Amino acid sequence: MNKKERIIEAAIDIFRENGIEKTPVSSIVKRAGIAQGTFYLYFSSKLALMPAIAEVMVEKTMAIVEKMVDKDAQFEKKIEQFIDAIFLVAHDYNEIQALIYSGLASTEHLKEWETVYAPFYDWVSNMLMDAAEQELIRSSIHIERTSKLMIGLVESAAEQVYLYDVTDENEVKKQKEEVHRFLLHALGAQ
Amino acid sequence: MNKKERIIEAAIDIFRENGIEKTPVSSIVKRAGIAQGTFYLYFSSKLALMPAIAEVMVEKTMAIVEKMVDKDAQFEKKIEQFIDAIFLVAHDYNEIQALIYSGLASTEHLKEWETVYAPFYDWVSNMLMDAAEQELIRSSIHIERTSKLMIGLVESAAEQVYLYDVTDENEVKKQKEEVHRFLLHALGAQ
Amino acid sequence: MNKKERIIEAAIDIFRENGIEKTPVSSIVKRAGIAQGTFYLYFSSKLALMPAIAEVMVEKTMAIVEKMVDKDAQFEKKIEQFIDAIFLVAHDYNEIQALIYSGLASTEHLKEWETVYAPFYDWVSNMLMDAAEQELIRSSIHIERTSKLMIGLVESAAEQVYLYDVTDENEVKKQKEEVHRFLLHALGAQ
Amino acid sequence: MNKKERIIEAAIDIFRENGIEKTPVSSIVKRAGIAQGTFYLYFSSKLALMPAIAEVMVEKTMAIVEKMVDKDAQFEKKIEQFIDAIFLVAHDYNEIQALIYSGLASTEHLKEWETVYAPFYDWVSNMLMDAAEQELIRSSIHIERTSKLMIGLVESAAEQVYLYDVTDENEVKKQKEEVHRFLLHALGAQ
DNA sequence: TATGAATGAGCCTTCATTCAT
DNA sequence: GATGAATGAAGGCTCATTCAT
Q1: What is the residue extent of each domain of chain D?
Q2: How much is the average pLDDT of B97-124?
Q3: What angle (nearest 5°) sits at the alpha carbon of residue B148, between those of residues B146 and B153?
Q4: Which of A150, B30, B83, D65 lies 20 to 30 Å (CA to CA) from residue A52?
């Protein structure tokens, strides 16, 4: 693995453990096994790391979603699998997820983040579009807007569960079911 | 206004302007018009300020929501007003909101935050309960869980709009309408 | 002695030993017997120290000049004493002198430096004016300009001697005499 | 042009723009169009570059002086042209000049610098010697010493003008005239 | 209670220099 | 000779916190 990737992976790891603001560059480079100065060969500043991390996080998220959602399943099932996937990501990348959506990172990179997120929004949009063509969801839906609402809903639901160290699996299951029902009704799925 | 309140108000003001991590205690006390050392008479550390801020923020949020949502309006209208209120709060307290939900503040205070948020969840729960009693929403709803989902949905929708400096009022209006439709369907409102 | 003065004196001392660019703030504060952070209570940056140092240096220079130049001596004698004084200062504050005239310090403070130097220029101007009134020097002299030339001449002469670690006292004496003759002729002194 | 020369020229250029201490080796090599490591094939350190620069600077200075001072002109005219030349150099190479005379560069290379400057001192000495032989200047002059005084005088006069961003051409002209008169009298030129 | 000068640990960043290719 | 990625020591500066008054 090249140095740049090692920096990003190391940063994600430590950010998950200690939070972002509390993580000095020195920790990142130590974990990455490189010298302090090397960091700045690849990123102009600590902040410039963020878009790269967001990108990797989106890739990870999409990989999990694509793996868990069965292309050929029924729509209801797909939604269930989608929820499972998002909850899994939220569970594993609690801190990072929070960062990415919180906008706490410098506003200078916000524009880049939209670009970075585009593929994920597109993926959900496509799923909705298929459903719309098959008339499985209500016709009044604006696909792009709704795809974002859907992602926001499920992610915030997952965060609510995991942010407070919920370890009761049953509680998680019930939350997922509630989201599932909520979402299916929202989409007007029969 | 006593010193403690002045500290909190000053902190909220500057956090909105400069972000939280970039706001030193020295700025807060300057704005509050007190001495540096005085801060520590009221808060044991900079971090200990956060729950107090969250509390005030929730109070502000509830004040706005209660003011904007007409108790006697029809359910659909109430939902619309609720969305308007949350969007307004998100617009004015972008950065703070982000903090509160992101859990970026020390995990030590997370428990307190749940307590702090309780009244807001209760308020929404009550609104849903009324609607449930009048059979205005589907019976399969779990009130408490759904109240959180609802808040999460609307807040994330608002953030998606305001995070990226959207100034196009028409765009905001469309987003609100989409959320409205989405939410009414989710609740099974006739 | 208060902290600000201690910083300035410490800085002058270490600058003389190690040069300016090679002196870290940490050395200055250690010598001054204060904490690193305290430095920044009195000077906004390392560079902001320079005008204060220049001021102290000018004060030191003027103190020596005023002490060594006998108000009631004859003009020729006064010039001799003036040269002695400048050579003494140059000998003791080699490095600092170099700094002050080299303009290596940030151009941002150059304007302040002119102000700082003003009293020294004035002092020499007054000496020349007295001589002019008594018709001891040529009438074609522009007092202000010439006072600066005179200072520049003597200081550069002293630097030429001391910059290269000249320890031969006889050599120094001859240089002084040459400057004396050069200067008296330049001024058209009879 | 070979690499060594390219390094020197590049260094002089950037030093003039940004100052010496603020110029990293990386900038020099970039401007010179060579690799970072290549620098150290020609100079053992950044500091070792200084004598080479001084040498080139002296060459440039002498080239300008020799070009501007008319060998066959009258002595008074020659002095005027000499002053013009030094002012021109000071104007163009402000920062570098300062370095060279300030001794701020490592004292380890000071000896070399004297050698480097020798030809310039010799040139002025020769001019004075010619004048002395023709009895155009006072006989009490010690040629070598006076040549250095003369250079010191004119350069400090030029620095005083250009250090403070004087752009008023008339002011510069007056300063030159004052120096001219001052110097002619100092030399006892009829 | 209130003050605010003082502290000093710790962070981000720069940059001269090295060395494997 | 030439390269340029990598190094890591060092420096300027910030800021939460303390404490004598």
Answers
A1: 1-46, 50-187
A2: 75
A3: 95
A4: A150
Q: What is the mean pLDDT of chain D?
A: 90
CB contact under 8 A, B101 and A102: yes
Which of D84, A137, D149 lies closest to C182, judged by CA? D149
What CATH number labels A48-187?
Answer: 1.10.357.10
Q: Does domain B1-46 have CATH number 1.10.10.60?
A: yes
**Token pair in block for residue C46:** 């390392």
CATH tag for D50-187 (out of 3.40.50.300, 3.30.70.260, 1.10.10.10, 1.10.357.10): 1.10.357.10
Whether residue B128 has pLDDT greater than 90: yes
Does A101 reach chain B within 8 Å, measured CB to CB?
yes
Residues of A in contact with B160 (CB under 8 A): 148, 152
Instruction: Return phi, psi of residue B110, to 5°.
Output: -60, -45
Q: What pLDDT was estimated at residue D165?
A: 60
pLDDT at site B98: 72
Distance CA A154, CA A160 (A): 10
B99 CA vs E11 C1’ separation (Å)? 23
Q: Which of D149, D165, D166, D174 is the best mutation test for C, with the most CBs of C within 10 A?
A: D149
Collapse the DSSP code of B109 into the 3-class scheme (helix H, G, I; strand E, B; otherwise coil) and give the result: helix
* CATH number of this structure's domain B49-187, picked from the four choices 3.30.230.10, 3.10.450.50, 1.10.357.10, 3.40.50.1000: 1.10.357.10
User: CB-based contact (8 Å) between B101 and chain A?
Assistant: yes
